[in-house]
Specification:
about 160 residues; mainly alpha; Monooxygenase; 2 domains; 6 helices; elongated; transmembrane; transmembrane helix; PQ-loop_rpt; membrane
């Protein structure tokens, strides 16, 4: 049987690893702006299980373990919050689709949309020198990786990729 210090170190390392398991999921939620693959029943059950385990470890006096469990519970609640936000307010939510349909319905009789950027402004966003790159064309307004750049649909449109010389 190892001594108490070794047991505490093993428990702390295990707790840190378990807490860090949520980081790739949080990164993916941030990068894709979609939480469609996560199920609410799973997330609720996971958070309840973490909370009950935290209470047990707290009452048992396992300080190292309950601190790690508390960090993991915080991460799980963050994932649950991100899912709720993305499902109801994110770019793929029902509200976003209704907003896009509403903007499409705002087009004037000549087919132009008064909410969209004018042609020269759109062109200045599409590449570094203001001209359209080879094969690129103006697209419908969307957001590129959540950068808040409405009217830009691809990273190359704002010069985030290498230009061909």
């Amino acid at each position: 049987m190892p001594d108490q210090t070794t047991i505490n170190v093993i428990g702390a390392v295990g707790g840190v690893v378990l807490s860090a398991c949520l980081l790739p999921q949080l990164y993916r939620l941030y990068r894709t702006r979609s939480a469609r693959d996560l199920a609410y029943p799973y997330l609720f059950a996971y958070c309840i299980g973490l909370f009950l385990t935290f209470l047990y470890l707290f009452w048992e006096g396992a300080i190292v373990a309950w601190i790690c469990e508390l960090v993991e519970l915080g991460g799980a609640l963050l994932v649950l919050s991100a899912k709720y936000y993305l499902d109801f307010y994110g770019p793929y939510s029902k509200r976003a689709k209704e907003r896009e349909e509403g903007e499409a319905g705002d087009a004037t009789s000549d087919g132009s949309n008064p909410r969209s950027l004018p042609g020269p402004a759109r062109l200045s966003l599409t590449s570094c020198n203001g001209d359209l790159e080879r094969g690129a064309s103006p697209r419908a307004p969307t957001d590129v990786d959540g950068l808040g750049l409405g009217g830009v649909t691809h990273k190359r449109d704002i010069g985030l990729t290498k230009h061909e010389t």
